[in-house]
Amino acid sequence: EQEKPMNVAIACYGDGAANQGQIWESANMASLWKLPMMFCIENNGYGMGTSIDRHSSINDYYMMGNSIPGLRINGMNVLAVKEGVRFAKEYCGAGNGPIYLEMMTYRYHGHSMSDPGTTYRNREEIEFTRSTRDPLEYVKKCLIDAEFMTAEDIKETEKRIRKMVQKEVLKAKESPRPPMELLTQHIYAADLTPGNQAYPDFVRMPDFAKSMTFNNK
């Protein structure tokens, strides 16, 4: 039988999580067993509100895998991401074992709603990154330079997309609240048959009175 490239798995996490124990344990076993695993680190320079210089002893995250090879990719460049991931998939799918990918990226806003995003960095840094590395502006420039689209074409496309998004947001807001039972769907498998689900016996909610019990017998 002709050999086919194996499927691969990819785990995406931030630079803040890159030094957590479960990552190292998983990487060790993936290397030991030569699993087709892509460890994708989204390095935006800050683990929540702490810069990488203060929370990591190594800033070259793509080199963290020891015996696992790694690539550093410009995560703000969609073409670089596409080609880098394509190479990584082919490498893992050929039975070579895992690989590290470090996506150099940035977030303009805070880590969460409680994080204003300006207490550990200044607005000048954010605006400088937006003006020099913005991924959408890069794609626009590529399209114009390659004469695939004009500036006016891009503006019309943006208007059309905004209308589509606004329509879907309004649809979501007007939709009824989904039933609580949906929280447990597509999580547990009863067996290897696609779509054959299993449910936990009990799901505890923050409000204990709203917890759910399932009869799985």
Question: Would you give an account of this structure?
Answer:
- With about 220 residues, the protein is of the alpha/beta class.
- It is built from six helices and ten strands, in the order βαβββαβαβαααββββ.
- It has a four-stranded parallel sheet with strand order 1-2-6-5, covered by helices on one side. The protein has a two-stranded antiparallel ribbon with strand order 3-4. Strands 7-8 form a two-stranded antiparallel ribbon.
- Strand 9 and strand 10 form a beta hairpin.
- The protein is globular, with a radius of gyration of 22 Å.
- The mean pLDDT is about 90.
Helices, strands, pairings?
Elements lengths: L8 E6 L6 H12 L4 E7 L2 E2 L2 E2 H4 L14 E5 L3 H19 L2 E6 L18 H11 L1 H11 L5 H24 L13 E2 L7 E2 L3 E2 L8 E2 L4
Parallel strand pairs: 1-2, 2-6, 5-6
Antiparallel strand pairs: 3-4, 7-8, 9-10
Characteristics:
10 strands, globular, alpha/beta, 4-stranded parallel β-sheet, 37% helix, 217 residues
